[in-house]
Design goal:
With 158 residues, the protein is α/β, with parallel strands linked by helices. It contains five helices and seven strands. Its main location: cytoplasm.
């Protein structure tokens, strides 16, 4: 399944829609090259859960993890770009939080293999053939093993 977003506002709207269906225990794996829109998606997702479109949502590139307490549960936004070995992720304490929190993981190729089992994977990139100068268009491709994801995505987000 995939969704083409013509501009940043559409990417943010998609993130907010998916956030509205999120629950504790969900893991969203955000794939994409540098500048693909992972952080834009994550910021919009978190702001939607906070019900605050102006909330400060800094990148976790240097801190590795940013924690947000939203009405639903805690949200851990993590950027694993600087992680070299998946075993290092356990040192962040995220494994203990997975069942009771929502995890947004940028650079998920560095997370432990078993974390992929129930993740919704969102791969973001600029669509091929996008007009020059239109750099905010994104193609978001979804994959995941859980039937729940398919029901959510078919429920009006795509």
């Amino acid at each position: 399944m995939e969704k083409k977003c013509s501009n940043q506002a559409e990417t943010e709207k998609l993130a907010a829609a998916i956030a509205s269906a999120a629950k504790a225990g969900d893991l969203f794996a955000l794939n994409g090259d540098l500048g693909a829109g992972k952080s834009t998606f994550a910021r919009a997702f978190i702001r939607a859960l906070l019900d605050n479109p102006e909330a400060e949502v800094p990148s976790p590139t240097f801190t590795l993890v940013q924690l947000y307490d939203v009405p639903l549960c805690s949200v851990f936004h993590t950027d694993l770009y600087r992680i070299k070995d998946p075993d290092e992720v356990y040192d962040l304490g995220l494994d203990d939080e997975r069942g009771d929190s929502i995890l947004l993981v940028e650079w998920p190729d560095r997370m432990p293999a078993e974390w992929w089992d129930n993740a919704l994977v969102l791969s973001l990139k600029q669509p091929e053939g996008a007009p020059v100068g239109i750099d905010e268009a994104r193609l978001v491709t979804f994959s995941g093993n859980e039937e729940r994801w398919h029901q959510i995505l078919k429920g009006g987000f795509l």
